[in-house]
Amino acid sequence: MATALITGGTSGIGAEFARQLAARGHDIVLVARDTSRLDAMAAELRGRAGDRETPDSQISVETMVADLAKPEDTDRVAARLGDRQHPIDFFVNNAGFRVSSRLANPDIAEHDRALNVMVRAVLVLGGAAARAMRERGSGAIVNVASINGQLTLSGYSAIKAWVRVYSESLSNELRGHGVTVTALMPGWVRTEFHQRAGTTKGEAGRGGIPGFLWLEPGLLVRECLRDVDKGRVISIPTARYRFLSWVVKHLPDATVRWVSRGISLSRSNAADS
Ligand SMILES: NC(=O)c1ccc[n+]([C@@H]2O[C@H](COP(=O)([O-])OP(=O)(O)OC[C@H]3O[C@@H](n4cnc5c(N)ncnc54)[C@H](OP(=O)(O)O)[C@@H]3O)[C@@H](O)[C@H]2O)c1
Prior knowledge:
- Helices cover 50% and strands 14% of the residues.
- The protein contains nine helices and nine strands.
- The strands form two sheets. The chain has a seven-stranded parallel sheet, with helices on both faces.
- The longest helix is centred in the middle third of the chain and has 28 residues, at 109-136.
- The chain binds NADP nicotinamide-adenine-dinucleotide phosphate.
- Residues 7-8, 10-14, 32-34, 37, 66-69, 94-97, 117, 144, 146, 186, 188-189, 191-193, 196 line the site of NADP nicotinamide-adenine-dinucleotide phosphate.
């Protein structure tokens, strides 16, 4: 039986990966900070597996409480990824959050936390998964980047651009070893991500983001898993976002900065209203 480990597997995109990989018959390891949400997600996954009619539909669900902003917690998760007795076949480097702090803010606490969770932990855990999978000659790694990384909006854009380049580089390093690496680049997805940032301005119809740009996590993850099955290095779910990504890629850098300034301005106006 294959096993998938998902960081941030209790909510939004990570929870959807857990549901769809469990539905494919994977055993699941969930990583997050909130114990009660980990227990609730584990119970949901076990219940769903029990509902299926095939006799071998039971899956095992393991939970790990870890704050990936803390290097010692990240090391524990890395050790689990490297456990030869209980190998991980599918790893989703997903945990993350929106960074609202401005780049010139003298208090860099939020940037520090973001770099630890969305860069340092991604590197440490991606490396641990890569070593174990390369040794076995098989496996899949998905790193959750963002279309935001093609823009120049914030420290978050810079972090997600790093995740994409990191994924492409890791994919090169693992080429020929039977391990696929995919950078998932979602657009705006309906998850708690936007509310956790302390505002509802990300909801459809507000903050200048048109409704058709909002994606459901189920669709996003279904398309991403299809791309992983095909061994694709970049996954941009939905034709509308593939088109937008293509346009941004072909615009002059100065135009991308101008568009980014417009989005930032509409966000701060929405926050003020
Ligand atoms: N939603 C979007 O529009 C969107 C678009 C592009 C990319 N993304 C990316 O997609 C990923 C998932 O976001 P989401 O939208 O699904 O957000 P979400 O619904 O807020 O879920 C975030 C998950 O990450 C976990 N997490 C957060 N901080 C953590 C930490 N320090 N240590 C361990 N786990 C932590 C959370 O659990 P705990 O709070 O219990 O730890 C939760 O399970 C992120 O990397 C995000 O940047 C999202």
